[in-house]
From TrEMBL:
Residues 24-145 form the Bulb-type lectin domain. It is a single-pass membrane protein. Its EC number is 2.7.11.1. GO terms for molecular function: ATP binding; carbohydrate binding; protein serine/threonine kinase activity. It is found in: Membrane. It comes from Rhodamnia argentea. Its main location: membrane. InterPro entries: Bulb-type_lectin_dom, Bulb-type_lectin_dom_sf, G-type_lectin_kinases/EP1-like, Kinase-like_dom_sf, Prot_kinase_dom, Protein_kinase_ATP_BS, Ser/Thr_kinase_AS, SRK-like_kinase. PROSITE patterns: BULB_LECTIN, PROTEIN_KINASE_ATP, PROTEIN_KINASE_DOM, PROTEIN_KINASE_ST. The keyword Nucleotide-binding applies. GO terms for cellular component: membrane. Residues 1-20 form the signal peptide. This is Receptor-like serine/threonine-protein kinase. The chain crosses the membrane at residues 445-471.
Length: 795
C-alpha cells in the first residue's frame, strides 16, 4: 500500500517536469506543435532559440528556428519556404521516430531528407541546432547539416553543403543565389545549376585544399584544410558570443554578411539594439562581380545594378522601362512602350529618341560594334536599326549595339562611356498628326489672308468673319483629334458608347460608391462576360467635371504599374463622361482597414509597400510626373488577392519631365493635406509624401487619423499619440492587441520612424517616395526623425 502511494506521488511530481520538457528539454516521441495563432514552440534549454511555426500571412505558416529573446525574432533556418503550411498544420515527432509536417488533411508537406530511422528523441540545442538523436545518443539528422540561408557560431559546413538565399526579404522560398564548398573552394553562384566554377561570381580559392567552412565562437568564418589548418578567412572580425548573438547570412541580394546583436539592451554602448554588420560584405560590390554572359546578373533582365551608400546593391529600370514585379525590384524590367517596327515601309525613326545614362553598361548583350565613330553617328546607327534597344558609346569612340533582353546591367564609376537608351517619344503619333493638321490649318489661313489683302473692305470684313469661323472649327477639330489620339496611346484603353455602358451596368443599378464628382457602378462588359468592371459616371458636363474627366484619363492612360488601378476605357459622348476601370473585388482600404476585423500585420505591410511603390512610380518613372494630390484609404483599392492599387486621379496634377513643382488651388482631403496647401507655397510630390505618412500611421495602428471617441484624450489625434509613444519608447502600446505586429516590433519601429519623416513640416525634410520605399523595405537605415508636432499646431 505504501509503495502504491509513493508510486502515485512520483507520477504526480513527474508530470509538470514532463510538461516542461516539451518546451525546454528533450522532445519525446509523440510530441507535436500545431500551426495556429498561439505561436507555440519548442525552445532550447536557455530559451535563446525556438523551433516552431511563424505566421507569414493570413492562414500561412513557416516552420522555422529563430532567436527567441530579441524583439524581431530573427529566423535562422526554415523548412517549408517553398510550401507554406496552412492553418491547422502539425509538426510531429511520431511514435515510430519520424519528424514530419502534415497539413490539416494529413498530406505531408515536409520531412527531413534523407529519411532517418531509429530516432529516440529530438532536442533544440542552445547553439540553434535542432537534432534528431538515436537511443545511443548518435545525431541522426540536424539542421546544421542542412542550412537554408544562415549559419551560426559552432556550425561547420562540409564538402557539398549548399547555402541558398531566400527569394526576398519576406519570402523564404529559394532565391537565385547560393554558395557551396565544392572541390575544395568556396564558390558563389547566381544561377541554380552552374556548368562549372567559371560561372561563379565570387570564389574563395584554396587550390582545392579546402575541407570545411567553420563559424567559430569568436565570430570568425573561415576555411580549413583536412588537418584543421586555417586556409582563408571569409570574415575576420572577432566578437564574443558571451555578450552578442551572431549570424552570417547569404542575403536575397546575393551578398554574404555577418551580423551581431547585443544580448541585453545595455551590453555595450557601442552597439545599437538591433542587428549590426561587423564585417565587409562578400563580395564587396556584387554589381561589378558577376561576369557571366548568360543569366540576369545581380538584377533581372533589362535592369541595371548600382551600389548604394550603405554598400547594398540597388536594382533600377532604365528610362522608358517599368518593373516586371513591383514587389521585387530584382525581377527585372520591361519596356513600357511599343517597340520600334521593323517594317521598312514605316521606319518610325521620327518617333524615337534617346535617354542617356553615364557609367552604365549591359556588357554581354551586344550584337554589333563599330570603332572610331562619333556619338552622333552611334545614335543614328541605333535609331535606324529596329533591333537596337541601347547603344553604348565608349570613351574611345566605339559604338556597341545592344538588343533585348539586356543582361548583367551595371552602373558604376569604373564603367566608362555612356548608355544611349532608345525610347518612344511620348504621344509621338499624336504629335505627328497634330503637326500635319497644323500645317494644313496654317496653309488655309495663309491663303485666306492673301485674299483679304487683295479685296475690298466689305469683302475683307466678310472673309475675316469666315476666317474666324473656320479657325474655330479647325481648332475644335484639332483638339478632338489630338484628345482621341492621346487617350488611345494606352494599349488596352478603348472607347465605349453610353448605351454600351448603360447595358453593362444594367441601367446603373448596383452602386459601389459615390464621391464629389459622381458615382461608381458595377458592370459586366458584353465582350468579357467573366470579368466585372467598375464604371465611374461623372456628373453633368460642367467646366470642373470636364477638367476632372480630362485629368483622370490623361493621368492614368500614361501609367502602367501593378499598384495603380487599370483604366480599361472611357465614354466621351455628348454630355456623358464615363470611365471604365478594372473591378476591385475587395473594395477600398478604408473598408478593409477600419472594418470589424483587423487585417493581419503582414498584409498591412504589403499594402504599405505597394502604395509606396505606386507613388514612387507616379513621381519618378512616368514621362510626365504625376502628383496624385488625394492619397487616403478611400482612394486605395484592393483586388482579389488584396494587392493595393491607387485610384481616383481626378485631382492629379501633371508635371513636365523637367518640372518638379507647381502652384494650384487646394486639393485633397482634410486630415491628409500637407501644410503647404494652406501656405501659398509651391506644390510638389512632397504633398503625396505627407498624405502617405498619415496613411502609413493608420496602417500601423489600424485606426483613423482622428478619433474623438478614443480611450484617452492623448489618443484622439493619431500623429500626436504615435510620436509620444515613439519618444517614450513604448512602441508596443501602438500595437498592443496585435500579436503579429508585436512580434515584429523592429519593423513597427522602422515604419513609425519612416512615417514621422513623411509628415515633417518642411517639405525639404521629407524623403522622396523612392527613398521611402527603400526605408520600408529595410534597404536603407532610417535615422531618428525630428518632432513633427510643431507643424500640427500651425494648421
Amino acid at each position: 500500500m505504501v509503495s502504491m502511494v509513493l508510486g502515485i506521488l512520483l507520477v504526480l511530481v513527474a508530470l509538470p517536469l514532463s510538461a516542461g520538457a516539451q518546451t525546454h528539454g528533450n522532445l519525446t516521441l509523440g510530441s507535436s506543435l500545431t500551426a495556429d495563432d498561439r505561436n507555440s514552440s519548442w525552445q532550447s534549454p536557455s530559451g535563446e532559440f525556438a523551433f516552431g511555426f511563424r505566421k507569414m500571412g493570413r492562414g500561412a505558416h513557416l516552420l522555422a528556428i529563430w532567436f527567441e529573446k530579441i524583439e524581431d525574432k530573427t529566423i535562422v533556418w526554415s523548412a517549408n519556404g517553398d510550401t507554406l503550411a496552412p492553418e491547422g498544420s502539425k509538426i510531429q515527432l511520431t511514435t515510430d521516430g519520424r519528424l514530419v509536417l502534415n497539413d490539416p488533411g494529413g498530406r505531408e508537406l515536409w520531412s527531413p531528407n534523407p529519411t532517418v530511422a531509429g530516432v529516440a528523441y529530438a532536442v533544440l540545442l542552445d547553439t540553434g541546432n535542432f537534432v534528431l538523436v538515436s537511443q545511443n545518443y548518435v545525431n541522426l539528422w540536424e539542421t546544421f547539416n542542412q542550412p537554408t540561408d544562415t549559419i551560426l557560431p559552432t556550425q561547420q559546413l562540409d564538402q557539398g553543403t549548399k547555402v541558398i538565399a531566400r527569394y526576398s526579404e519576406m519570402n523564404y522560398s529559394a532565391g537565385r543565389f547560393h554558395f557551396i564548398l565544392q572541390d575544395g573552394n568556396l564558390a558563389f553562384y547566381a544561377t541554380p545549376t552552374p556548368l562549372d566554377v567559371s560561372d561563379a561570381y565570387w570564389v574563395i580559392n584554396t587550390n582545392g585544399s579546402g575541407f570545411q567552412l567553420i563559424f567559430n565562437q569568436s565570430g570568425q568564418v573561415y576555411l580549413t584544410a583536412t588537418n584543421g589548418a586555417v586556409l582563408n578567412l571569409v570574415t575576420s572580425d572577432t566578437v564574443p558570443t558571451s555578450a552578442f548573438y551572431q549570424r552570417a547570412i547569404l542575403e536575397y541580394d546575393g551578398v554574404f554578411r555577418q551580423y551581431v546583436h547585443p544580448k541585453t539592451a545595455n551590453s555595450s554602448s557601442r552597439w545599437p539594439r538591433g542587428w549590426s554588420v561587423v564585417s565587409s560584405p562578400v563580395p564587396p560590390n556584387i554589381c561589378t562581380s558577376i561576369p557571366l554572359n548568360i543569366g540576369t546578373g545581380a538584377c533581372g533582365f533589362n535592369s541595371y545594378c548600382s551600389l548604394g551608400d550603405d554598400q547594398r546593391p540597388r536594382c533600377h529600370c532604365p528610362p522608358g522601362y517599368t518593373p516586371l514585379d513591383s514587389t521585387n525590384e530584382m525581377n527585372g524590367c520591361r519596356q513600357d512602350f511599343t517597340p520600334q517596327s521593323c517594317d521598312e515601309s514605316r521606319p518610325e525613326t521620327d518617333q524615337f529618341t534617346f535617354n542617356r545614362l553615364l557609367h552604365t553598361n549591359w556588357p554581354f548583350s551586344d550584337y554589333e560594334r563599330s570603332a572610331a565613330q562619333t556619338e552622333d553617328w552611334c545614335r543614328e546607327a541605333c535609331l535606324v536599326d529596329c533591333f537596337c534597344a541601347v547603344a553604348i558609346f565608349s570613351d574611345e569612340g566605339t559604338c556597341w549595339k545592344k538588343r533585348i533582353p539586356l543582361s548583367n546591367g551595371v552602373m558604376d564609376t569604373s564603367v566608362g562611356g555612356k548608355a544611349l537608351i532608345k525610347v518612344r517619344i511620348q504621344n509621338s503619333t499624336s504629335k505627328s498628326t497634330g503637326d500635319g493638321q497644323k500645317k494644313n490649318k496654317n496653309s488655309t489661313l495663309i491663303i485666306i489672308g492673301s485674299v483679304l489683302l487683295s479685296s475690298s473692305v466689305f469683302v475683307n470684313l466678310l472673309l475675316l468673319l469666315i476666317t474666324c469661323l473656320i479657325y474655330r472649327r479647325f481648332r475644335s477639330r484639332d483638339s478632338k483629334l489630338l484628345w482621341a489620339v492621346q487617350i488611345n496611346q494606352a494599349a488596352v484603353t478603348q472607347t465605349f458608347t453610353f448605351q454600351e455602358l448603360q447595358e453593362a451596368t444594367d441601367g446603373f443599378k448596383e452602386e459601389l460608391g459615390r464621391g464629389a464628382f459622381g458615382a461608381v457602378y458595377k458592370g459586366v462588359l458584353r465582350s468579357q462576360d467573366a470579368n466585372f468592371v467598375a464604371v465611374k459616371v461623372l456628373a453633368t458636363k460642367t467646366g470642373e467635371r470636364e477638367k476632372e474627366f480630362e485629368r483622370e484619363v490623361s493621368a492614368i492612360s500614361q501609367t502602367n504599374h501593378k499598384n495603380l488601378v487599370q483604366l480599361l476605357g472611357f465614354c466621351n459622348e455628348g454630355q456623358h463622361r464615363l470611365l471604365v476601370y478594372e473591378f476591385m473585388s475587395n473594395g477600398s482600404l478604408a473598408d478593409f482597414l477600419f472594418g470589424s476585423s483587423r487585417p493581419s500585420w503582414y498584409r498591412r505591410v504589403e499594402i504599405a509597400c505597394g502604395v509606396a511603390r505606386g507613388l514612387s512610380y507616379l513621381h519618378d518613372d512616368c514621362t510626365r510626373h504625376i502628383i496624385h494630390c488625394d492619397i487616403k484609404p478611400q482612394n486605395i483599392l484592393l483586388d482579389g488577392s488584396l494587392t493595393a492599387k491607387i485610384s481616383d486621379f481626378g485631382l492629379a496634377k501633371l508635371l513636365m519631365a523637367n518640372q518638379t513643382r507647381t502652384t494650384t488651388g487646394v486639393r485633397g482631403t482634410r486630415g491628409y493635406l500637407a501644410p503647404e496647401w494652406f501656405r501659398n507655397m509651391p506644390i510638389s510630390g512632397k504633398v503625396d509624401v505627407y498624405s502617405f505618412g498619415i496613411l502609413l500611421l493608420e496602417l500601423i495602428c489600424c485606426r483613423k487619423n482622428y478619433e474623438p471617441e478614443a480611450e484617452s484624450e492623448a489618443q484622439i489625434v493619431l500623429v500626436d499619440w504615435v510620436y509620444d509613444c515613439y519618444h517614450e519608447g513604448s512602441m508596443l502600446e501602438l500595437v498592443e492587441s496585435d500579436e503579429e505586429a508585436s512580434s515584429d516590433i523592429r519593423r513597427v519601429r522602422r515604419f513609425v520612424m519612416t512615417a514621422l519623416w513623411c509628415i515633417q513640416e518642411d517639405p525639404a525634410l521629407r524623403p522622396t517616395m523612392k527613398k521611402i520605399t527603400q526605408m520600408l523595405e529595410g534597404a536603407v537605415e532610417v535615422s531618428v526623425p525630428p518632432d513633427p508636432t510643431s507643424f500640427l499646431s500651425s494648421i
